[in-house]
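User: I'm new to structure prediction. If I give you an amino acid sequence, what do you actually give back? Let's try with this one:
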Amino acid sequence: MTKRILQVVTNVDAYDDPDDPTGLWLSELAQSWDVFEKAGFEQTIISPLGGKSPLEPRSLKFPNYDKAARTWHNDPDRMALLDNTLSPDQVDAADYDAIYFTGGHAVMYDFPDSEGLQRLTRELWEQGKIVSSVCHGYCGLLNTRLSDGTLLVDGKHLTGFAWQEEVLARVDKLVPYNAEEEMKSRGALYQKAKLPFVSYAVVDGNLVTGQNPGSAKDTAQKVTSLLTTL
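Assistant: Good question. You get back a string of structure tokens that encode the predicted 3D arrangement of the chain. For your 230 residues, that looks like this:
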């Protein structure tokens, strides 16, 4: 049977200051979409509230504006998918095999406390399916608790955008919290590459995480490899 993946994107378009725009980091969606599409998987895009997912302006500039992002951005049909995302309550976890949280700083605001996303993540995990994220997407895993009350990330090896990378990207004064430290405080066994911004992905059972935008393809490929064994 064809494998089905939930791609999660943000609804937020700005940092705390509305004059500082943010949103979905397009290449993280576009690169993973291409990998999953090539593997023959079906994909559905959801967001915490449903509806429109705005784009992070900096993701549309070199070097982040890669071939995958350009192709998506210039395709009206694909861009329309970001205008009409589903909400979690429109989705049944039983119909899917994996969830993939995309990034962009915007997700730091609306991913962590979305009860709908937490429900889907918990149900997929407890059904033995795959939970994955790239870059800031791991903020969507911060507060997800399993049916026994434990945090999903507690004791799990994982990665995500590092604080050093926030500083180098000059957004450390804009972000609402230190995601790396928040993840560690929840018992996660956080890992990162020796150098910032290089591709780095971690697999711990059915949990697959990538560190930064450059890790999107590798993360998606690791998800694909796991899905072929389910």
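You can read the tokens as a compact description of the fold. Here is one thing that stands out. The chain has one domain: 4-227.
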